[in-house]
Input
Amino acid sequence: MMNPVNRKVVLVSRPTGRPDESNFAFVEEAVTPLVDGQVLVAVDLLGIDAFIRTTLDEGSFHRGARLGGVIPALGVGEVLDSRDAGLTAGDKVFGPLGSQTHAVMPAAALRKLDTGIAPVNAWLGALGLTTGLTAYFGIVDVGRVKKGDTVVVSGAAGAVGSIAGQIARLSGADKVIGIAGGRHKTTFLVDELGFDAAIDYRTENVGARLDELAPNGIDVFFDNVGGEILDDVLMRIVEGSRIVICGAISQYEKMDDVRGPRNYLKLAERHATMEGFAVFHFAAHYARAEAQLAQWYRNGDIVMREQIERGVENFPAVMNMLMTGAHHGKLLLKV
Output
């Protein structure tokens, strides 16, 4: 087959604070020929996840973007050509496809998708590594949510938070409270996702609202945000509370000056725990999580709202959309 043109966004300088257009360049170049063990993938959808911002910094915990290289991003696509026996043209795959329209990659880095279980987009959302699986392990394994718990989720209208709240409900929580920015988001959490209540941190006093909605305290906090909201929750934990640190998006644009919690001594006073995790720590249990998530997804027990933007050239702008909270649910880019 003729090699197509790859359209891609590359990193040309490392941002200080919020990235802008000057940190990136849009490049078009011919796709390189395959060698044994490689496949050519036409990228369809990219998941725009919070970890991407951290890859722009030198020495990132996640595999960093190199200057002149594409931005790391997980995606789904279709195999166009293959020099590996495990994949053939037409196969749908998931993997670290990056900010580009065509990816030449080792076949071993990709997963062939079973579209009989769920459509391809679900493998970035409800069944996705950085969304559904992350929410599952945070709520089930780290938070150990049980019947009768009061659970609070920050960043609740985002991809991970929205699934985490639903899994908490399915795990028996007595009350699930979401924290999000904007009345449209809090309405979405309650009316569409079944949260018991939601707090708009932009217009409401979070601490006062938590006192009102959880007068007996908070058993589990699934935190995607950090900062002031984490401190507000720490003042309201009970004996044996579990604080689950999934992310801290409020800190990702100032990683050289991260602000930790002021109220951490409440952990000792309440014999509570604060535990961080990343999804790959649970790699041995992916099959368990996928089986349960797939069942919930098929039964309609979990809902994954998607917001799909278009055009690989818009990758930087869509990433900033995520960082400013200007999205609902799972943010995807159709390249």
